[in-house]
Amino acid sequence: MTAPRRSHPVPAALLLVLGAVTWVPARYGVMTTWDEPWLGLDYTAWNRGMLIPLLLFAGGAITAARTAAARAAAVAWSAVATGFSLSWVGVAVEFVLGGGLHGGPRDLAVGGWTIYLIGTAVTAVGALALGAALVRRNSSIAVAAVVAGVAILAWPPLLAASLDRLAVVDQLLVGLAWGVVGLHLRPPAGSGSAASRGTGMSGTARDSGSDRRDRSVGPFLDRP
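Structure (tokenized):
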């Protein structure tokens, strides 16, 4: 009998959960400090703070893409990672290099803002694709990813309609949804074996099945 394997933390899950934890206060600060600071930090400072959750989310998505069991999920995670990376670049251009509309060149602010919006669009598409890819494998992640994607897409229309309070809730929901994704990420079944990743069978179940087959055929079957 094979000893049960210990459950190890998934690096992608840790990065996504940390990203959610840092996203919520940073994004709330961004959405509420255009006119006055919050917790002693102004609009520019909170936007610079967004570099932390965006980096964590990008790192989590990259790690998840490398360990995804299905190709469709890996492609979706790659799109999510690309989107978050573009958003990180956009924030860096607008608020680190340029200083934002409050205190920097308008061209850099507009350029950074454009890159950020492109990044959010790519992230949303990746999130929706991830939901479609995992709807049968992990419904919890699929639902959370779809919620994140829809919330991202809903944000610009909410701003355009001057629904500021709903826009704040919407952006907090984005971070929380990715946190839920992280909480439900599991190690690849039978990690360390390409065959087990392809079948989705855990290492313990695979070994038990092999033992049963060996006992049934006796000495006539050599073990690989």
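The two ends are 18 Å apart (CA to CA). The mean pLDDT is 85.
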